[in-house]
Amino acid sequence: MVKPSEPEFEQAYNELVSTLKDSTLFQKHPKYQKVIDVVSVPERIVQFRVAWENDKGEIQINNGFRVQFNSALGPYKGGLRLHPSVNLSILKFLGFEQIFKNALTGLNIGGGKGGSDFDPKGKSDNEIRRFCYAFMKELAVGGFLGENRDVPAGDIGTGAREVGFLFGAYKSYTKSWEGVLTGKGLTWGGSLIRPEATGYGLVYYTEQQIKYATKGKEDFTGKRVAISGSGNVAQYAALKVIELGGTVVSLSDSKGAIISETGITKEHIFSIQEAKIKFKSLKDIINEYSAFSSSPVKYIDGARPWIHVGQVDVALPSATQNEISGEEAKALVAAGVKYVAEGSNMGSTQEAIDVFEGERVATKSASSPAVWYGPGKASNAGGVLVSALEMAQNSQRLTWTTEQVDDELKKRMIELFNQSIKFATEYSNETNKESLPSLVKGANLAGFVKVADAMFDHGDVY
Ligand code: NDP
């Protein structure tokens, strides 16, 4: 059940339930109402102490969590977040979103999420390794994970290095080599395109928005694109936008934003990739790396990019939750934004979604859309999608080629987009027939109905 002390979870729950109620689903099929009370309670939450030793030999204590939310469609699947802000409300919101996102991929994966309030920033590699071994010990020895039980992956603060340490820990505690984590290294069970998957998938999804809305007349060519974040998702989204002929006008981190009228370059992004592994801030990166001295950008301390980007066509929030406020959404609309798609989970506040959806509903003609909002649940599903393909490759003991994985990612992002359109149209109660279908309603309806049907079949709901 939703408790008022869990604001992020409450927000995610209300977003899902309000969109389902604001459709004809319950009118047409009243049985689905019963599912909400069941699906909104995690099947299991594992919470534990993580005691690890710092380089001075002192004991350090963090909280560890794994929320095993729903296994109707397959083993629990969802990332591990390592960030000081991590608490149960945030992990329940992320796990809840993950259930329906994973359903949308069309692959057999349930929903989960986990992590710790451990802050990797400022820690040595040895400290990170000792933390990862201590964290994994609780989950592995407790028997909570397994290739058919629960398969975690990366998220904020958990990249290739951390996945490597976590995998090594699992293997040593269980004496078993199995595909129990995704985002693994390429030589030991990882999939090509997994690092790129969320960012690329986000851009493939947005490309569908542009093509659908313009009846195939436009794509990314010439579009001005504002991106936030400068981590895994933002980096690969930016590289794909540049490849497709768009101009990336912003990136950001937790300290500030960089803006470029003429476009952030691939060389800028390669420097950021190299520096972010060492936890450097954008402020330091632009002073230290030659790519920025030969092609300078503007730095704004302590700011998110949205009100500073000037005229834009596309916005791709890709840092963290609630990173576009209602006011910032209005500023983006005033700046001409037509397409918003979230790389981050719950990147927009409810007020921002209301601004974007309000613009969509007010559209006068389908051929000149106002703003079309794509929720993270659908638009950032590329990461988990390729994670599921990594699981398939591990089961087969095979490695697919870059082209195979990228083609599958693209094909499935298009299918997922089309599913959202289909469900939004089928269960629409909207009166303005000129406006584009609601992608947030469509994603919630398609994901929810698939999970609910499996829960009925299993006798979880009756
Ligand atoms: P990374 O840790 O690689 O990067 C996160 C970026 O966001 C960094 O630039 C970081 O800044 C910034 N950031 C983190 N917290 C805050 C904050 N509170 N305020 C402002 N900026 C912040 O994470 P990912 O790129 O993997 O994840 C980004 C988002 O995408 C998250 O919402 C995640 O849940 C979502 N996502 C990720 C997937 C994946 O495959 N990785 C899959 C689907 C969704 P700094 O460098 O200063 O720390």
Automatic annotation (TrEMBL):
<comment type="subunit">
    <text>Homohexamer.</text>
</comment>
<feature type="binding site">
    <location>
        <position position="101"/>
    </location>
    <ligand>
        <name>substrate</name>
    </ligand>
</feature>
<dbReference type="InterPro" id="IPR036291">
    <property type="entry name" value="NAD(P)-bd_dom_sf"/>
</dbReference>
<dbReference type="GO" id="GO:0005829">
    <property type="term" value="C:cytosol"/>
</dbReference>
<feature type="active site" description="Proton donor">
    <location>
        <position position="113"/>
    </location>
</feature>
<dbReference type="InterPro" id="IPR006097">
    <property type="entry name" value="Glu/Leu/Phe/Val/Trp_DH_dimer"/>
</dbReference>
<dbReference type="InterPro" id="IPR006096">
    <property type="entry name" value="Glu/Leu/Phe/Val/Trp_DH_C"/>
</dbReference>
<dbReference type="InterPro" id="IPR033524">
    <property type="entry name" value="Glu/Leu/Phe/Val_DH_AS"/>
</dbReference>
<feature type="binding site">
    <location>
        <position position="232"/>
    </location>
    <ligand>
        <name>NAD(+)</name>
    </ligand>
</feature>
<keyword id="KW-0547">Nucleotide-binding</keyword>
<dbReference type="Pfam" id="PF00208">
    <property type="entry name" value="ELFV_dehydrog"/>
</dbReference>
<dbReference type="InterPro" id="IPR006095">
    <property type="entry name" value="Glu/Leu/Phe/Val/Trp_DH"/>
</dbReference>
<dbReference type="GO" id="GO:0004354">
    <property type="term" value="F:glutamate dehydrogenase (NADP+) activity"/>
</dbReference>
<comment type="similarity">
    <text>Belongs to the Glu/Leu/Phe/Val dehydrogenases family.</text>
</comment>
<dbReference type="InterPro" id="IPR046346">
    <property type="entry name" value="Aminoacid_DH-like_N_sf"/>
</dbReference>
<dbReference type="Pfam" id="PF02812">
    <property type="entry name" value="ELFV_dehydrog_N"/>
</dbReference>
<dbReference type="GO" id="GO:0000166">
    <property type="term" value="F:nucleotide binding"/>
</dbReference>
<feature type="domain" description="Glutamate/phenylalanine/leucine/valine/L-tryptophan dehydrogenase C-terminal">
    <location>
        <begin position="191"/>
        <end position="459"/>
    </location>
</feature>
<feature type="binding site">
    <location>
        <position position="154"/>
    </location>
    <ligand>
        <name>substrate</name>
    </ligand>
</feature>
<feature type="binding site">
    <location>
        <position position="77"/>
    </location>
    <ligand>
        <name>substrate</name>
    </ligand>
</feature>
<dbReference type="InterPro" id="IPR033922">
    <property type="entry name" value="NAD_bind_Glu_DH"/>
</dbReference>
<keyword id="KW-0520">NAD</keyword>
<keyword id="KW-0521">NADP</keyword>
<feature type="binding site">
    <location>
        <position position="98"/>
    </location>
    <ligand>
        <name>substrate</name>
    </ligand>
</feature>
<feature type="binding site">
    <location>
        <position position="198"/>
    </location>
    <ligand>
        <name>NAD(+)</name>
    </ligand>
</feature>
<keyword id="KW-0560">Oxidoreductase</keyword>
<protein>
    <recommendedName>
        <fullName>Glutamate dehydrogenase</fullName>
    </recommendedName>
</protein>
<dbReference type="GO" id="GO:0006537">
    <property type="term" value="P:glutamate biosynthetic process"/>
</dbReference>
<feature type="binding site">
    <location>
        <position position="387"/>
    </location>
    <ligand>
        <name>substrate</name>
    </ligand>
</feature>
<feature type="site" description="Important for catalysis">
    <location>
        <position position="155"/>
    </location>
</feature>
<dbReference type="InterPro" id="IPR050724">
    <property type="entry name" value="Glu_Leu_Phe_Val_DH"/>
</dbReference>
<dbReference type="InterPro" id="IPR014362">
    <property type="entry name" value="Glu_DH"/>
</dbReference>
